[in-house]
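lol ok so funny story. i was supposed to be doing the assay writeup but got distracted and ended up predicting the structure for this chain instead. priorities right. anyway since i did it might as well share w the group, maybe its usefull for someone
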Amino acid sequence: MVRGSPAFVMTEGLLCNLQIVPIARIGQCIPMFEPVLLLIAAAFLLAGFVKGVIGLGLPTVSMGLLAVTMQPSRALAIVIVPAVITNIWQTFVGPYLRDIIRRLWPLMVGTVIGIWLNAGMLTGPYSRYGTAVLGVLLVIYGSMGLSKFSFSVARRDEKWIGGIVGLITGVVSAATGVQVIPSMPFIQAIGMEKDELVQALGVFFTVATVSLAINLTSTGLLTAATALPGAVAMAAAFTGMFIGQALRSRMQPEAFRHWFLIAMIFLGLYLVGSAVYNLMQ
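and the output, tada:
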C-alpha cells in the first residue's frame, strides 16, 4: 500500500490511539507545539503590565520585543487585534470623548491618510529596513521621555499642526506599527488634563490601529493564520493589564516609567544593530 494514501492515513490514525500497554505516544502522534506562542504570551504579558501601570505602551513594547525574532510585518499582524481592543476599552473610560474628537480630528484624519499613502511599506522592497526604523523610533521615544522634552501648542494652531503631525505619524506607523512618534509629543503639548490625556490616547490609537488593521487585511498580512497567536496575545495583554492596574497603587509609576524608557532605548539599539548586521550580510 502507498504510504500517502487515505487508507494508510486512517490506519495510522487508529494505531496512534491503540495502546496495548500504557506507554507514551511516539512519532506523528505527538501533538504539535509552537514555542513562538510562549514568546508572544511573554511579550504581551509584559506589554500589558506596562500599559496597566502607566496607561500606554502596549504596541510599542510588544512590537519591540517581537521584532527581535520576527519581521515587523508579522509582529504587527499579531499586535493589531489586542491593540485595537485594549484601546477601544480605554477610549470609552471617561467623559471627554466629544471634546477629544473635536480637538484631535485633524490628527486622526492625517494619520489615516499617512497610513494609506504608505500602505505597501511592510511588504514592499523596503520592508527589510522596518526593524532598523523601529529600533530608531524606540531610541527616540525613550530619549525624549527621559529628557522631559516638552513644548506647547497654542489652541489656535492645533488643527493645522495636528494634520501635519498626523500625516507623518501615519507614514511612520505604516512602516513600523508604532504610532507614538510624533503624535505623542503633540497630544501632550496641547494641554490636556491627565484623565483627558489618557482617554485621548485611547481614541487616537484606536483610529490608528483600526486603519492599520485595514491596511494589513488589504495587503494579505492579517489572515486566519494569525488568529491563534492573536488570541494568545490578547489573553496575555489583558492579564498583564489587570496585574499592572492592581499594582499601580503600590508602585511608584514615575520610577517604573524611568526604567521602562531606559529598557526601550537598549532594545532599540539592539534592533538597529542587528538589522544593520543582517543588511550587511
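Residues 17 and 39 are 31 Å apart (CA to CA). Residues 1-33 have pLDDT under 50 and may be disordered.
back to the writeup now i swear
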